Amino acid sequence: MSRQWSCVDRREFVSGILAVSAAIPLLAYATPSRRQKAHVVIVGGGYGGVTTAKHLKRYNPNLDVVLIEERPFFMSCPMSNHFLAGLMELTQLCFSYNVLETKHGVKVINDKVLGIELDKKAVRTSSGYISYDYLVLSPGIDYDIEDKPYYKESIVRNPPAFKPGSEHIYLKRLIEEFEGGDILITVPQPPYRCPAAPYERAALIASMIKRNKLKAHMYFVDANERPLINSEGFMSAYYDLYRDVATYITSAQIRDIDVQKRVVRTSHGDFKYDLANIIPPMRANRIVKEAGLLKKGQRWVEVNPLTFESQVKNVFVIGDAAQSYLPKSGYAAHSEGKLVAKIIDARIKGKEVKEEYLQMICYAMVSDKEAIMTETAFRYDAVSKRFMPTHREDNQRKESTAKRYEEWARGLWRDLFG
Fold this sequence. Notes:
Blueprint: H1 10-15, E1 40-43, H2 47-59, E2 65-68, E3 73-75, H3 80-84, E4 94-96, H4 98-102, E5 107-109, E6 113-117, E7 122-125, E8 128-131, E9 134-137, E10 141-143, H5 150-157, H6 166-177, E11 181-187, H7 197-211, E12 216-222, H8 231-242, E13 246-249, E14 254-258, E15 263-266, E16 269-272, E17 275-278, E18 282-284, H9 286-290, E19 301-302, E20 315-317, E21 322-323, H10 330-349, E22 360-365, E23 371-381, E24 386-398, H11 399-417
Parallel strand pairs: 1-2, 1-9, 2-5, 9-20, 11-12, 11-17, 12-13, 19-21
Antiparallel strand pairs: 3-4, 6-7, 7-8, 10-18, 14-15, 15-16, 22-23, 23-24
């Protein structure tokens, strides 16, 4: 796997931009340079953004597609718990964006998005403005802590590791340095990124305690009454495998966090810790809020559930930032990206797109070698105007399911970067 990171020649890029700062008159939008003009701009290089970009070029090779992503390389959150538990190397989760440019013709810009001006159909980056005809926003999450200031320092000291990159690397370091004591993992109320992820992480860390024969005990403090997905499978693993090294506390709301004393105060008492993974509540990335796509009090962007189009025509929001019938997961974002690519391509060509209801597949490890899984199909009920799910869960922990889990992930990565 190539480790070369995608980058942009800043001088070449800036030379083609007529509006290089907000201080320059907005008349520059009327006559963008050919290099600056992009038919489709995609913000966010995660599962949703990469999928949309690649499939747009597959459907229409002559289409101008620009992907803007601040991070210099892609890191998968799905399977990242394997990395934290020492079952997978970080390099196995990381991919260069270069292949999107060299193999598929997507223009990748590693830059920070400073704002989106919907009335001007332009994305403002630190290098200037990029115009669009169609905009796809897949910027992921932010932590919802504005009215919970006690999370602010905790995020620095106790990385949640629900954003790909440095948080995972730092948490892995803390886990490797841990020699014993009390481990605390917390779970917020939904919706948050990947419903199964905290429960899988707790199972793998509990398994690590036993595997390494650590003198440690884990306290798993859940704001919910039970696991949000595969409840039977996770609870079976807890009672059968981990009750001697873990305590599961349910319906516990965090009231305060004292990082100096290493204490989390909850509605069910105080918990001291030597190692903590405190997962805060989540919301859509700030980009969509600043663009005006969130109404007051909303945490996620409302979209047309059949097209993922926002209230602004030809502006689509996919992945974790969208409020939809699908959970917030990499697989869901991948499916949404494929659908939105079809819709944009059809609109450009003046064609219709058949209604398509997406599905969900979720795997989760419950030990070093065993996994459980669930599949969910959806149908739309015209009377209630709701999507009705049909679940099929396999809560029997199996090594064969764990192998399928890895094959599933590798299949996703091949579809993204192959």
